[in-house]
Design brief:
The chain is an alpha+beta fold and 190 residues long. A 6-stranded mixed β-sheet has the order 1-2-4-3-5-6. The radius of gyration is 16 Å and the shape is globular.
């Protein structure tokens, strides 16, 4: 099990794989894991960072059996959430999604100046970042993910989808782990 930092959050396990494909969902965990949990998140959601901080530990605790894909669901009530999600997608195009995501879940502001500053901190090419943030295709990807969240029944954030089962909200790491355990596919026999 992952070590816990003084702040009460889990230390990031070194063995957790991270994937930041130019297209599609960024993920944590083995590409060939038999089970996939989708996390629908909103960067302005006050609860989503708690869930996001536990994903590495969850993947590590399931020892290669689980992969987590992160998708965006910027809620209309959060005025800057869509811009933050678009900026995260722009970072993903440069292979730096997880670096930028980490900065976003710790951020308190999501105005354009902050999103640009965080892009610099993540080591992104600033001109390319600006082009990608303005790219209609990037914005449409965010809209498609939000529509997907609504379609599967994850109308709020954080939303979790595993093998057809949806949960919305956050109680604790133990709660999420229990949800995942209950909805894993049966293990293949010998």
């Amino acid at each position: 099990m992952a070590a816990v930092l003084a702040s009460g959050t889990a230390a990031i396990p070194a063995e957790v794989e991270r994937h930041s494909p130019a297209q599609g969902a960024p993920s944590i965990g083995p590409r060939a894991a038999p089970d996939t949990l989708v996390l629908y998140t909103d960067y302005q959601c006050p609860v989503c960072p708690r869930a996001a901080r536990e994903i590495d530990r969850l993947v590590a605790d399931f020892g290669g059996r689980l992969r987590v894909e992160l998708k965006h669901h910027p809620l209309a009530m959060h005025a800057r959430a869509f811009d933050a999600a678009t900026a995260a997608k722009a970072a993903q195009r440069q292979g730096k999604f997880w670096d930028y995501h980490r900065l976003l879940i710790e951020a308190r502001a999501f105005d354009q100046a902050t999103l640009r500053r965080l892009a610099g901190e993540a080591g992104l090419d600033p001109a390319r970042f600006e082009r990608d943030v303005a790219d209609r295709a990037v914005r449409e990807e965010v809209l498609a993910e939000a529509k997907e969240a609504e379609t599967v029944g994850a109308g709020g954030t954080p939303g979790f989808l595993i093998n057809g089962h949806v949960e919305v909200g956050w109680a604790s790491y133990a709660w999420l782990r229990q949800i995942v355990e209950r909805h894993l596919k049966p293990a293949a026999g010998p």
